[in-house]
Amino acid sequence: MTAPSAPRRPGGEALARIGHPVPAVDRADTSPHAFPDGGTWRTEIPSVEGPEALAVVLKESARLDVPVHRISQGSGVWMLTDDEITEMVESCAERDIELCLFTGPRGTWDIGAGTRTESGGAGLRARGHDALAGCVEDALRAAGLGVRCLLVADEGVLWTLHRLRAAGELPADTTFKLSALTGPVNPASYAVYEQLGADSVNVPSDLTLDHLTEIRRGSRAPMDMYVEAPDDLGGYIRMYESAELIRRGAPIYLKFGLSRSPGIYPYGAQLREHTLATARERVRRGRLVLDLLARLGSDGGMSPLGSRLPGDLRRFPVPEGD
Fold this sequence. Notes:
The chain is of the alpha/beta class and 322 residues long. Helix content is 35%, strand content 11%.
């Protein structure tokens, strides 16, 4: 874990010198939680859709000296061949980076018309038994190829995969990450997802700092949050809040997304150049955030590279016989 340094508020000292009032930090709203290694934050590069994009991210992260704890993919296990998954698993393992692949199918890509309405219908949830079973098939296939982190967008899928993990059908060290597109917006729902089996929980990037403090009063499950969100998640850019996101949301994964950029899910070769360019730029955005944290003296407390497990979390009891 990196050594802590004396933090300062953005622009605070200069504003104080000209007599402009600067709000005091209330230490009572600092998160009391951390990762099991003692760190308060980790990094994630999202939307890395295949081996070629992964190679770009790894090369660029080495060039810019951006530490990476987790790589995640959004198109789904089913959009990758066994060879592609194996290549990604091996590349991440060589660098001690966690690889997280999305389970599918999901409602936005099937024939349900409800997702095309203004209300969004069932959104990303798995519609019907067959979609649930498809997510299970993806999870078993990915785990068999060495993937140990699965991205989930449905509470039923999450509970089912947690039961499979408890039953030994999935490796005990498999972790489940809840998608930002179904992320909770209040402390009660956040705690429910933890108890359903989530090991890290994406929250929408429009939650306030007070919302993060409220969540941390009821749950210690690691939080995932876009410091810069894609346009379909609002396009929010919260770089200058990075230090406060860590202080109030710890343990937290800082996700380096990209706004003002067309979507790439589900990925295919027709999107190759755009996907590689955005993968490279996500790493650069990460460097900007790390530089900002360093200037503010808030870059201490990062988990050691290679850390991936969330620690002890609360779970609903798994019924007997499951």
